[in-house]
# Entry
Amino acid sequence: MKNRNLILLGFVLLKFFLQYILLSSAYDLQRDEYLHLDQANHLDWGFISVPPVTSWISTLIKWLGNGVFWVKFFPALFGALTMVLVWKTVEKLGGSMFALVLASLGVCFSVLLRLNTLYQPNSLDVLCWTAFLYTGVSYVQSNQSKWLYFAAIVFAIGFLNKYNIAFLLIAMIPAVLLTPLRSIFVRKEFYLAVLVAFVLVLPNLFWQYQHHFPFWHHMKLLKEQQLVNVNRLDFLKDQLLFFTGAVFVILFSLLAFWRYDAFKPFRFLFWTFVFTLSLFTYLKAKNYYSIGLYPIFIAFGAVYITENWTMGWKKVLTYVMMALPLLVFARMYFIAFPNFDPDYILQHQETYKRYGLLRWEDGKDHTMPQDFADMLGWKEMALVVDSVYTAFPNKEGLLVLCQDYGQASAINYYKKNPQLIASSFDADYISWLDLSKKYTDVILVRHGGDEDKDRKEERPLFDTVYLAAKRINLNAREKEISVYLLKGAKIDLTERLRRERDEEFSSW
# Structure
């Protein structure tokens, strides 16, 4: 047991080591990371973009100094804990040391290395999916009611982190009904656990109600702007890319639920797998929504293979499967992570294109992977805006208004002038706009996609309008960012902003 714990510790330390070396200093944070960090300054039971758990973690990061080390620490931690749960699942199933190592390699050297580089709800989402399925395994194995309550708590945390886990629950209901586990629906403890989960998520549901369910508005925009470009066949093909090194382990786990007597009580997992992927395929979901489904199956597959393939060529195949995640990682190291600077990517365009890494959410190929492009130019832009703001004499009535949340949140993260607070009508910032002040001047931040470069819309409303600064970075997602000064408002600017905000809300 002591040796097992040492090996597990070794995998955890390796996980943290990899997460930090796979990040090049040539990149800034990603736009979503800045938004999530700024949520610590606006704590609430919900946000337009995400539920509240991310803001709680951001508050902890803020207490720790808001440095990049801590920003990257928590997704790495959630990835490590996912691997620990897979390890514990193998132990519950009576797996050998070979099974533990095979499963850990499959999880460690997978898409989670990419996912865990970003401070987003996705890393905790995968952990919660894994933990939720782990409680199901534990309940089937022990028949103890405590696992129903643990499942309720895990689901609530997952729901308050990212609503995505609700799809797993929806898929599990028919999966359970198709197996003897359906007897759970006549147990009093099951409904008490449901009540526990409901009470825990109720504050967020009430917040959604108070704010006219912005979740639906967010989903509408997502469907119109991103999911419309999702191809159902591509979604299914992409599933093979997440755990490529362990894909055979996963496939054999699905087979094991029908051929291995020890796994037949857990057959509800097979149907959960089928119904979850079917649901996401029908809804044209983003490919990564399903990542949390796979880790638990790696545990089952590892046990099945190592328990049944103990002789001859089958044992040799076991070693091959242990090596496969390392071989895949050796290849992916050069293309899948932000560990090489933009110049390297520009020199190896065909390689990145071959793996579909240059395809963005708009369905088109670009010169940089979208996540990487979204990690460039932010600090430079923020310091440009900060210098314009610092040089402006009358800051009392000065508003910094950005075109999108990436600009606003990056400015608020990198700013040197503590008085500077950037705002926007985009994402959560529309709720945070301070309309208690009387604004007379504006620093307007716009990216290159803005067609009104001469500011024809604003010129009649201000005494003076001119371009104060510009930031150009051809590798960034927002290649050109212009900073305008609008001085001397001829109208009640605060009232106009209030009307525009109310009109936006009413359109929801």
In short: The longest helix spans residues 68-92. The CA atoms of residues 392 and 398 lie 9 Å apart.
